[in-house]
Amino acid sequence: MDEPKLVKLVNGEKGNIIKITSINLDGVMRRRLLDLGFVAGALVEVVRKSPLGDPIAFRVSQTTIALRKEESAKIEGELVSSGK
Amino acid sequence: MGNEYRIALAGNPNTGKSTLFNALTGLRQHTGNWAGKTVSMAQGSVPFKDKVFQLVDLPGTYSLFSNSKDEEVARNFIVFEKPDVTLVVLDATSLERNLNLALQVLEMTKNVVICINLIDEAEKQGIKINEKLLMNRLGVPVIKISARNKIGFPLLLDTIDRIITGAIECHPAQMKYSDEIEEQIRKIEPKVREMVGDRISSRWVSLRLLDGDEALLNELNKRFVPEGVR
Q1: Which residues neighbour B228 within 8 Å (Cβ) at sequence distance 6 or greater?
Q2: Which of A26, A32, A33, A35 would you mutate first to test chain B, the one with the most B CBs within 10 A?
Q3: Given Cys at both, which of B25, B127, B134, B166 links B142, Cβ 3.0 to 4.6 Å?
Q4: Same structural domain for residues B116 and B22?
Q5: Is residue B200 domain-resident?
Q6: d(CA B85, CA B53)
Q7: Would you call B63 and A35 a contact, using CB atoms and an 8 Å cutoff?
Protein backbone atom coordinates (compact mmCIF):
# COMPACT_ATOMS: atom_id res chain seq x y z
CA MET A 1 0.00 0.00 0.00
CA ASP A 2 1.20 3.47 -0.84
CA GLU A 3 2.19 5.78 1.98
CA PRO A 4 -0.11 8.83 1.96
CA LYS A 5 1.66 11.80 0.43
CA LEU A 6 1.95 14.74 2.86
CA VAL A 7 1.61 18.20 1.39
CA LYS A 8 1.30 21.70 2.75
CA LEU A 9 -1.84 23.53 1.67
CA VAL A 10 0.32 26.24 0.09
CA ASN A 11 1.76 23.64 -2.31
CA GLY A 12 -1.61 22.24 -3.34
CA GLU A 13 -2.54 22.41 -7.03
CA LYS A 14 -5.95 23.39 -8.35
CA GLY A 15 -8.38 20.48 -7.95
CA ASN A 16 -6.32 18.73 -5.26
CA ILE A 17 -8.23 17.35 -2.31
CA ILE A 18 -6.24 17.34 0.90
CA LYS A 19 -7.19 15.79 4.22
CA ILE A 20 -5.81 17.97 6.99
CA THR A 21 -3.49 16.29 9.48
CA SER A 22 -1.91 19.21 11.34
CA ILE A 23 -2.25 22.95 11.87
CA ASN A 24 1.04 24.43 13.05
CA LEU A 25 -0.27 27.75 14.24
CA ASP A 26 -1.07 29.11 17.69
CA GLY A 27 -3.34 31.52 19.42
CA VAL A 28 -6.06 33.52 17.78
CA MET A 29 -5.12 32.56 14.20
CA ARG A 30 -5.28 28.86 15.05
CA ARG A 31 -8.65 29.36 16.76
CA ARG A 32 -9.97 31.31 13.79
CA LEU A 33 -8.90 28.67 11.28
CA LEU A 34 -10.47 25.92 13.38
CA ASP A 35 -13.72 27.89 13.51
CA LEU A 36 -13.66 28.29 9.74
CA GLY A 37 -13.43 24.51 9.33
CA PHE A 38 -9.68 23.89 8.98
CA VAL A 39 -9.65 21.04 11.49
CA ALA A 40 -7.71 17.78 11.50
CA GLY A 41 -9.58 15.25 9.37
CA ALA A 42 -11.39 17.86 7.26
CA LEU A 43 -11.24 17.56 3.47
CA VAL A 44 -10.07 20.71 1.75
CA GLU A 45 -10.21 21.31 -2.00
CA VAL A 46 -7.89 23.76 -3.72
CA VAL A 47 -10.34 25.90 -5.69
CA ARG A 48 -8.03 28.38 -7.37
CA LYS A 49 -4.69 30.10 -7.03
CA SER A 50 -3.91 33.74 -7.63
CA PRO A 51 -1.58 34.48 -10.58
CA LEU A 52 1.35 34.81 -8.20
CA GLY A 53 0.23 31.86 -6.08
CA ASP A 54 -0.88 33.91 -3.10
CA PRO A 55 -3.55 33.96 -1.77
CA ILE A 56 -5.14 30.58 -2.50
CA ALA A 57 -8.87 29.83 -2.30
CA PHE A 58 -9.92 26.63 -0.57
CA ARG A 59 -13.27 24.90 -0.31
CA VAL A 60 -13.83 23.73 3.26
CA SER A 61 -17.09 22.52 4.79
CA GLN A 62 -19.24 23.99 2.01
CA THR A 63 -17.63 27.44 1.93
CA THR A 64 -14.79 28.99 -0.04
CA ILE A 65 -12.10 30.62 2.07
CA ALA A 66 -8.90 32.27 0.84
CA LEU A 67 -5.71 32.00 2.87
CA ARG A 68 -2.41 33.80 2.54
CA LYS A 69 0.72 31.72 2.30
CA GLU A 70 1.70 32.73 5.85
CA GLU A 71 -1.17 30.54 7.03
CA SER A 72 -1.48 27.94 4.27
CA ALA A 73 2.22 27.07 4.61
CA LYS A 74 1.56 25.98 8.16
CA ILE A 75 -1.33 23.63 7.45
CA GLU A 76 -0.41 20.13 6.36
CA GLY A 77 -2.41 17.19 5.09
CA GLU A 78 -2.55 14.00 3.06
CA LEU A 79 -3.15 14.31 -0.66
CA VAL A 80 -6.37 12.32 -1.12
CA SER A 81 -6.99 13.11 -4.78
CA SER A 82 -5.13 15.13 -7.37
CA GLY A 83 -8.46 16.04 -8.97
CA LYS A 84 -7.64 14.53 -12.35
CA MET B 1 -42.55 42.67 35.06
CA GLY B 2 -42.96 39.09 36.13
CA ASN B 3 -44.04 37.63 32.81
CA GLU B 4 -41.20 38.95 30.65
CA TYR B 5 -38.47 36.58 29.56
CA ARG B 6 -35.30 37.24 27.64
CA ILE B 7 -34.57 35.10 24.61
CA ALA B 8 -31.21 35.48 22.85
CA LEU B 9 -30.74 34.64 19.16
CA ALA B 10 -27.31 33.34 18.21
CA GLY B 11 -26.13 32.02 14.86
CA ASN B 12 -23.58 32.17 12.08
CA PRO B 13 -23.76 35.13 9.69
CA ASN B 14 -26.32 34.61 6.89
CA THR B 15 -28.36 31.89 8.55
CA GLY B 16 -31.54 33.97 8.51
CA LYS B 17 -31.22 34.89 12.17
CA SER B 18 -32.40 38.44 11.58
CA THR B 19 -35.14 37.22 9.24
CA LEU B 20 -36.40 35.06 12.10
CA PHE B 21 -36.07 37.96 14.49
CA ASN B 22 -38.04 40.29 12.24
CA ALA B 23 -40.70 37.70 11.44
CA LEU B 24 -41.29 36.97 15.13
CA THR B 25 -41.18 40.52 16.43
CA GLY B 26 -42.85 42.26 13.50
CA LEU B 27 -42.29 45.97 13.98
CA ARG B 28 -42.11 45.72 17.74
CA GLN B 29 -38.38 46.22 17.96
CA HIS B 30 -35.81 48.76 18.96
CA THR B 31 -32.07 48.83 19.26
CA GLY B 32 -30.73 48.09 22.69
CA ASN B 33 -27.39 49.07 24.15
CA TRP B 34 -25.70 47.02 26.81
CA ALA B 35 -23.59 48.34 29.64
CA GLY B 36 -20.05 49.13 28.61
CA LYS B 37 -20.60 48.12 25.01
CA THR B 38 -20.96 50.26 21.97
CA VAL B 39 -22.07 47.37 19.78
CA SER B 40 -25.83 47.44 19.66
CA MET B 41 -28.22 44.55 19.39
CA ALA B 42 -31.76 44.73 18.14
CA GLN B 43 -34.38 43.90 20.69
CA GLY B 44 -38.07 43.21 20.19
CA SER B 45 -40.99 41.70 22.01
CA VAL B 46 -43.19 38.74 21.13
CA PRO B 47 -46.37 38.17 23.15
CA PHE B 48 -47.14 34.48 23.64
CA LYS B 49 -49.96 33.14 25.79
CA ASP B 50 -49.61 34.88 29.18
CA LYS B 51 -45.96 35.83 28.58
CA VAL B 52 -43.87 38.35 26.71
CA PHE B 53 -40.64 37.13 25.14
CA GLN B 54 -37.98 39.84 24.83
CA LEU B 55 -35.90 38.74 21.85
CA VAL B 56 -32.31 39.94 21.57
CA ASP B 57 -30.60 39.56 18.19
CA LEU B 58 -26.92 38.86 18.89
CA PRO B 59 -24.22 39.63 16.29
CA GLY B 60 -23.82 36.77 13.78
CA THR B 61 -20.59 34.85 14.44
CA TYR B 62 -18.90 31.58 13.47
CA SER B 63 -17.62 31.10 16.98
CA LEU B 64 -17.86 32.51 20.50
CA PHE B 65 -14.20 32.52 21.49
CA SER B 66 -13.92 36.30 21.48
CA ASN B 67 -11.59 36.59 18.52
CA SER B 68 -13.41 39.80 17.70
CA LYS B 69 -15.62 42.41 19.35
CA ASP B 70 -18.75 40.82 17.84
CA GLU B 71 -17.93 37.43 19.28
CA GLU B 72 -17.11 38.93 22.64
CA VAL B 73 -20.41 40.82 22.79
CA ALA B 74 -22.42 37.72 21.83
CA ARG B 75 -20.53 35.53 24.28
CA ASN B 76 -20.76 37.95 27.19
CA PHE B 77 -24.47 38.27 26.65
CA ILE B 78 -25.06 34.51 26.73
CA VAL B 79 -22.75 33.89 29.68
CA PHE B 80 -23.18 36.94 31.89
CA GLU B 81 -26.57 38.43 31.01
CA LYS B 82 -28.05 34.94 31.26
CA PRO B 83 -31.02 34.97 28.90
CA ASP B 84 -33.86 32.62 29.93
CA VAL B 85 -33.49 30.73 26.66
CA THR B 86 -30.86 30.93 23.91
CA LEU B 87 -31.97 30.10 20.37
CA VAL B 88 -29.20 28.92 18.09
CA VAL B 89 -30.17 29.43 14.46
CA LEU B 90 -28.51 27.01 12.04
CA ASP B 91 -28.52 26.93 8.25
CA ALA B 92 -30.01 23.59 7.22
CA THR B 93 -27.95 23.59 4.02
CA SER B 94 -24.60 23.70 5.84
CA LEU B 95 -25.11 22.01 9.18
CA GLU B 96 -21.54 20.82 9.55
CA ARG B 97 -20.20 24.36 9.62
CA ASN B 98 -23.06 25.63 11.77
CA LEU B 99 -22.90 22.94 14.46
CA ASN B 100 -19.55 24.34 15.64
CA LEU B 101 -21.32 27.33 17.15
CA ALA B 102 -24.18 25.18 18.48
CA LEU B 103 -21.77 22.95 20.42
CA GLN B 104 -20.04 26.01 21.87
CA VAL B 105 -23.34 27.42 23.10
CA LEU B 106 -24.30 24.05 24.64
CA GLU B 107 -21.11 24.19 26.71
CA MET B 108 -21.89 27.69 27.95
CA THR B 109 -25.52 27.58 28.98
CA LYS B 110 -28.29 25.11 29.74
CA ASN B 111 -31.53 26.36 28.21
CA VAL B 112 -30.91 26.12 24.48
CA VAL B 113 -33.20 25.53 21.51
CA ILE B 114 -31.66 24.63 18.17
CA CYS B 115 -33.57 26.14 15.20
CA ILE B 116 -32.73 24.59 11.88
CA ASN B 117 -33.62 27.35 9.47
CA LEU B 118 -33.98 27.34 5.66
CA ILE B 119 -35.51 23.89 5.94
CA ASP B 120 -37.55 24.41 2.75
CA GLU B 121 -34.39 25.33 0.86
CA ALA B 122 -32.60 22.25 2.21
CA GLU B 123 -35.46 19.96 1.16
CA LYS B 124 -35.30 21.46 -2.32
CA GLN B 125 -31.63 20.44 -2.40
CA GLY B 126 -32.55 16.91 -1.31
CA ILE B 127 -31.14 17.30 2.21
CA LYS B 128 -33.07 15.33 4.82
CA ILE B 129 -32.59 16.23 8.48
CA ASN B 130 -33.47 13.79 11.25
CA GLU B 131 -34.27 16.26 14.02
CA LYS B 132 -35.21 13.50 16.51
CA LEU B 133 -31.73 12.00 16.25
CA LEU B 134 -30.13 15.43 16.60
CA MET B 135 -32.32 16.10 19.63
CA ASN B 136 -31.14 12.87 21.27
CA ARG B 137 -27.49 13.60 20.54
CA LEU B 138 -27.57 17.26 21.55
CA GLY B 139 -29.87 16.90 24.57
CA VAL B 140 -31.94 19.99 23.74
CA PRO B 141 -35.01 20.63 21.54
CA VAL B 142 -34.28 20.80 17.80
CA ILE B 143 -36.92 22.47 15.61
CA LYS B 144 -37.03 22.79 11.85
CA ILE B 145 -38.22 26.16 10.65
CA SER B 146 -38.35 28.46 7.66
CA ALA B 147 -38.10 32.04 8.87
CA ARG B 148 -38.86 33.36 5.39
CA ASN B 149 -42.09 31.37 5.00
CA LYS B 150 -42.99 31.35 8.69
CA ILE B 151 -42.94 27.57 8.95
CA GLY B 152 -42.50 26.02 12.40
CA PHE B 153 -43.16 29.15 14.46
CA PRO B 154 -45.99 27.79 16.68
CA LEU B 155 -43.86 24.80 17.71
CA LEU B 156 -40.83 27.03 18.30
CA LEU B 157 -42.70 29.48 20.54
CA ASP B 158 -44.42 26.65 22.39
CA THR B 159 -41.06 24.97 23.02
CA ILE B 160 -39.58 28.20 24.41
CA ASP B 161 -42.64 28.55 26.64
CA ARG B 162 -42.31 24.98 27.90
CA ILE B 163 -38.62 25.44 28.73
CA ILE B 164 -39.47 28.55 30.75
CA THR B 165 -42.25 26.79 32.66
CA GLY B 166 -39.98 23.81 33.27
CA ALA B 167 -42.13 21.37 31.29
CA ILE B 168 -39.08 20.63 29.12
CA GLU B 169 -35.73 20.19 30.78
CA CYS B 170 -32.58 20.64 28.69
CA HIS B 171 -29.56 18.40 29.16
CA PRO B 172 -27.08 19.91 26.71
CA ALA B 173 -24.51 17.45 25.42
CA GLN B 174 -21.03 18.21 26.76
CA MET B 175 -17.93 17.64 24.68
CA LYS B 176 -15.53 15.09 26.12
CA TYR B 177 -11.90 16.10 25.71
CA SER B 178 -8.67 14.11 25.84
CA ASP B 179 -7.72 12.50 29.18
CA GLU B 180 -5.03 15.12 29.69
CA ILE B 181 -7.49 18.00 29.36
CA GLU B 182 -10.18 16.27 31.43
CA GLU B 183 -7.59 15.71 34.17
CA GLN B 184 -6.72 19.41 34.22
CA ILE B 185 -10.41 20.34 34.30
CA ARG B 186 -10.86 18.11 37.36
CA LYS B 187 -8.00 19.95 39.03
CA ILE B 188 -9.17 23.51 38.51
CA GLU B 189 -12.95 23.21 38.31
CA PRO B 190 -13.55 23.10 42.10
CA LYS B 191 -11.60 26.35 42.54
CA VAL B 192 -13.41 27.97 39.64
CA ARG B 193 -16.74 26.95 41.19
CA GLU B 194 -15.74 28.60 44.47
CA MET B 195 -15.30 31.81 42.55
CA VAL B 196 -18.22 31.86 40.11
CA GLY B 197 -20.70 29.68 42.05
CA ASP B 198 -23.68 28.53 40.02
CA ARG B 199 -23.86 31.76 38.08
CA ILE B 200 -21.96 30.39 35.12
CA SER B 201 -20.78 26.92 34.08
CA SER B 202 -17.58 26.19 35.99
CA ARG B 203 -16.61 23.51 33.46
CA TRP B 204 -16.83 26.02 30.65
CA VAL B 205 -14.82 28.65 32.55
CA SER B 206 -12.17 26.01 33.37
CA LEU B 207 -11.88 25.10 29.69
CA ARG B 208 -11.50 28.70 28.65
CA LEU B 209 -8.84 29.33 31.29
CA LEU B 210 -6.93 26.23 30.16
CA ASP B 211 -7.04 27.67 26.65
CA GLY B 212 -5.44 30.87 28.01
CA ASP B 213 -8.46 33.09 27.33
CA GLU B 214 -7.36 36.39 28.83
CA ALA B 215 -10.38 38.32 27.60
CA LEU B 216 -12.59 36.05 29.70
CA LEU B 217 -10.29 36.34 32.71
CA ASN B 218 -10.54 40.13 32.53
CA GLU B 219 -14.31 39.94 32.20
CA LEU B 220 -14.54 37.66 35.25
CA ASN B 221 -12.37 40.07 37.22
CA LYS B 222 -14.57 42.95 36.24
CA ARG B 223 -17.81 41.22 37.12
CA PHE B 224 -17.04 38.96 40.07
CA VAL B 225 -14.14 40.49 41.97
CA PRO B 226 -15.27 43.31 44.27
CA GLU B 227 -13.79 46.77 43.73
CA GLY B 228 -10.69 47.27 45.92
CA VAL B 229 -9.65 43.60 45.84
CA ARG B 230 -8.68 43.80 42.17
Answers
A1: none
A2: A35
A3: B134
A4: yes
A5: yes
A6: 10
A7: yes
On whether the CB atoms of residues B10 and B58 are closer than 8 A, the answer is yes
Helix (H, G, I), strand (E, B) or coil at B137: helix
Q: What are A's interface residues with B at a Cβ cutoff of 8 A?
A: 28, 31-32, 35-37, 61-63
Interface predicted TM-score (ipTM)? 0.74
Mutation choice for A interface testing from B12, B61, B62, B103 by most A CBs within 10 A:
B62
Q: Confirm whether B31 is domain-assigned.
A: yes
Strands B4-11 and B51-57: parallel
Which residues from chain A sit within 8 angstroms of residue B65, using beta carbons? Answer: 31, 35
Q: Kindly give the pairing relationship between strand B4-11 and strand B85-91.
A: parallel
Q: What is the dihedral of CA B101, B197, B214, B107, to 10 degrees?
A: -10
The stretch A76-80 carries a mean pLDDT of 94
Confirm if A36 and A62 have CB atoms less than 8 A apart.
no
Count of all residues that appear for chain A in the document = 84
Q: Count H helices, E strands: chain B?
A: 9, 7
DSSP line for B56-104: EEPPP-S--S-SSHHHHHHHHIIIII--SEEEEEEEGGGHHHHHHHHHH
Closest alpha carbon to B63 in B98, B92, B36, B32: B98
| Domains of chain A, first to last | 6-81 (2.30.30.90)
Give per-residue pLDDT as tens, B98-144. 999 999 999 999 999 999 999 999 999 999 999 999 999 999 999 99
Which structural domain, as residue segments, surrounds residue B51? 4-165
Integer angstrom CA distances of residue B55 from B32, B137, B158: 11, 27, 15
How many distinct structural domains can be found in chain B?
2
- Per residue in B7-26, pLDDT (tens digit) is 999 999 888 888 899 999 98
In a domain, B80, yes or no: yes
The strand pairing partners of B114, in sequence order, are: B88, B142
